[in-house]
C-alpha cells in the first residue's frame, strides 16, 4: 500500500478569519464585491497577546474575543423588581 501524505500540513498552513470589509476599502461601494473579507491570522502574534493577559492554553481557539475593555462604560440593562 502506498504511503499517504497528510491532507493539511499544519506547519505550513495559513489560518484566515472572516471579517467585515473596512469602510476605507474602495471596494465597499462595489455591489459585486462581498461585504466580508478573509484576513490571514498570525498565530504567533495572537499567542503573544494571549500571554500578555495570562491566557496560556496551547490550542488554536481565540480567547481574546471574550475580553472586554475595563475602561469602557458598563453595558446598560434594566432590572424589574416585583
TrEMBL record:
Pfam families registered for this protein in UniProt: LTV
GO biological process: ribosomal small subunit biogenesis; ribosomal small subunit export from nucleus
GO cellular component: cytosol; nucleus; preribosome, small subunit precursor
InterPro entries: Ltv1 (IPR007307)
Domain of life assignment: Eukaryota
Chain coiled-coil ranges: none
PANTHER family reported in the protein's UniProt record: LOW-TEMPERATURE VIABILITY PROTEIN LTV1-RELATED (PTHR21531), PROTEIN LTV1 HOMOLOG (PTHR21531:SF0)
Family: Belongs to the LTV1 family.
Name used for this protein in its record: Protein LTV1 homolog
Protein species of origin: Adineta ricciae
Amino acid at each position: 500500500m502506498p504511503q499517504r501524505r497528510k491532507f493539511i500540513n499544519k506547519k505550513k498552513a495559513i489560518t484566515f478569519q472572516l471579517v467585515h470589509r473596512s469602510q476605507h476599502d474602495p471596494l465597499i461601494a462595489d455591489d459585486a464585491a462581498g461585504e466580508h473579507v478573509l484576513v490571514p491570522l498570525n498565530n504567533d502574534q495572537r499567542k503573544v497577546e494571549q500571554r500578555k493577559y495570562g491566557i496560556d492554553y496551547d490550542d488554536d481557539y481565540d480567547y481574546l474575543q471574550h475580553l472586554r475593555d475595563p475602561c469602557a462604560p458598563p453595558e446598560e440593562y434594566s432590572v424589574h423588581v416585583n
